[in-house]
Design goal:
Blueprint: H1 6-9, E1 27-30, E2 36-43, E3 48-54, E4 60-68, E5 74-82, E6 87-93, E7 102-104, H2 109-115, E8 123-125, H3 139-147, E9 148-158, H4 173-177, E10 196-204, E11 207-215, E12 217-220, H5 292-297, H6 303-312, E13 316-322, E14 327-334, H7 353-365, E15 369-377, E16 381-382, E17 385-386, E18 401-405, E19 409-413, H8 414-418, H9 424-427, E20 431-437, E21 446-453, E22 456-457, E23 461-462
Antiparallel strand pairs: 1-12, 2-9, 2-12, 3-6, 3-10, 4-5, 4-9, 6-7, 7-8, 10-11, 13-20, 14-19, 14-21, 15-18, 15-20, 16-17, 21-22, 21-23
Length: 465
């Protein structure tokens, strides 16, 4: 068990081994570097500290998006500017006691100035704008969506030649590459290499000095020079990648606008406002209609490619568990691409954005995931059956049960894992091996485990095989 002081959180660093670069498929690298990052969880009821590191000598622009745990609607997003070797640090917490989380900018005021978002009260409020009408979800689901979730960081562009004397408030790739906003000109931007990494720390309720630390998942080669992705369409301005803050209707392709027939992103609009998503990476086919998600949206996108990278890490998760009075295992299961499955190629025949949000969220919330669950112990028990098989331990499980998950970010403990097993012996298992199998789900997942107990909280561990 570990105790951590808040004063050291801003200095949390990750040891990185080599810079991986490849041509072809994306890779998901736990504890590594990439050009896109996934922070699988934040908890808006407590303190959360995040770092995003630029492990290069270039100035880099990236997009940060906070999504809710229930249907992944955007809660807040903005661009950040990272100087060479920079570490961007911020805290997420209910800073003013109003029941909603805010972003504390005081830990890294200079970087926040680069974004052009520094506010007089030094806080950025979360937003509840992309929510369905009353009655579509329960009050508990609404609270969970607003207060817990995950974070995406997607590298947008290298700002070649940028210097600190130039990097004033509000500088971004839009103004840097084409100050006159000449839509027909090539903006001369280049892709971000695999140089981004991240860390997070989440405190325990009632004890801000004790908590859980983890490293972000890195997607490597999300967008590559020469790859077919929407960054390549800068000259024609048909990709939703960058735009100025506080966009106006005249910003055109840079904003998600419902029923805009000229908008490249009109079918991915119920839970985003602007900026890149996981659909905006390399499409390995390079043409619309070559994979299932291309067909679903009628445009090239990288959703299938991201899913392939996740699946390559394994979809059967096994780990040792504890279930005793003083130590208990807990689990996070996260589905980073699930929200895309709430979209409709026909927009559900809706004529208003609110109507589309209502239908999309309802459709998405109905798409649960069934896990195959095995619970082993260390004394040759299995599924409540005592297996007398000599010295071989543990025995092969006699029962594999199913466990349903309905959220995009799911938190549960070992008691919930055991719940499908009716046999009384399983309740008495205090340690052993648990297996969560997501293989039959329509979209892939990431799984993590950690322990809590009387003495504190133990290390976060990825369950990917």
């Amino acid at each position: 068990m570990k105790r951590l002081k808040k004063s050291i959180i801003a200095a949390v660093a990750i040891t990185l081994i080599g810079l991986v670069s490849s041509v072809g498929a994306m890779n998901l690298k736990t504890d590594g570097m990439g050009d896109a990052l996934l922070f699988p969880v934040f908890n808006g009821f407590v303190d959360n500290y995040f770092t995003v590191s630029n492990n290069s000598t270039d100035w880099i622009q990236a997009h940060v998006r906070f999504r809710g745990a229930e249907w992944s609607a955007e809660l807040r997003d903005f661009d950040i500017i990272l100087s060479p070797g920079d570490v961007f640090v911020f805290r997420l917490a209910d800073l003013d006691g109003d029941g909603a989380w805010e972003l504390d900018q005081s830990l890294d005021a200079e970087n926040w100035t680069y974004t052009g978002l520094l506010q007089s009260n030094n806080m950025l409020e979360s937003s509840n704008a992309l929510e369905p009408s009353a009655g579509v979800v329960s009050d508990a689901q609404l609270v969970h969506q607003r207060r817990a979730g995950y974070v995406e960081v997607i590298g947008e562009a290298v700002l070649t030649g940028l210097t600190k004397t130039v990097a004033l408030a509000g500088v971004n790739a839009w103004t840097w590459s084409d100050a006159a906003n000449g839509f027909l000109n090539d903006r001369g931007l280049t892709d971000v290499p695999n140089v981004l990494s991240g860390t997070a720390f989440i405190s325990m309720a009632g004890n801000a000095n004790l908590g859980l630390a983890y490293n972000a998942e890195a997607i490597q080669d999300f967008r590559t020079t020469g790859g077919f992705h929407r960054l390549d369409t800068y000259a024609a301005d048909t990709g939703v990648i960058l735009h100025i803050d506080n966009s106006l209707a005249t910003d055109g392709f840079y904003v998600y606008r419902f029923l805009d027939s000229n908008n490249f992103e009109q079918r991915i609009s119920f839970n985003n406002t602007w900026g890149p998503t996981l659909a905006d990476g390399d499409d390995l086919d390079g043409t619309a209609g070559d994979d299932a998600m291309d067909l679903r949206f009628g445009t090239v996108n990288s959703i299938s490619e991201v899913e392939a990278a996740i699946v390559a890490g394994g979809q059967s998760f096994g780990s040792y568990y504890f279930d005793s009075a003083d130590t208990k295992s807990n689990y996070f299961v996260h589905f980073p691409t699930k929200f895309f499955y709430g979209e409709s190629s026909t927009l559900y025949a809706q004529t208003s954005l609110q109507g589309y949000i209502d239908r999309s969220v309802a459709a998405l919330m109905a798409q649960g995931v069934t896990l195959g669950v095995e619970v082993w112990d260390i004394f040759e028990h299995s599924g409540g059956i005592n297996v007398a098989s000599g010295n071989t331990s543990p025995a092969t499980p006699g029962v594999v049960e199913s466990l349903g998950l309905g959220q995009e970010l799911n938190l549960f403990d070992i008691d919930f894992v055991k719940s499908p097993f009716n046999a009384g012996d399983v309740d008495g298992y205090t340690s052993g091996r648990v297996v969560l199998n997501i293989g039959g789900a329509p979209f892939p997942g990431l799984a993590y485990t950690f322990e809590t107990g009387d003495l504190g909280i133990a290390n976060w561990r990825s369950m990917q095989r």
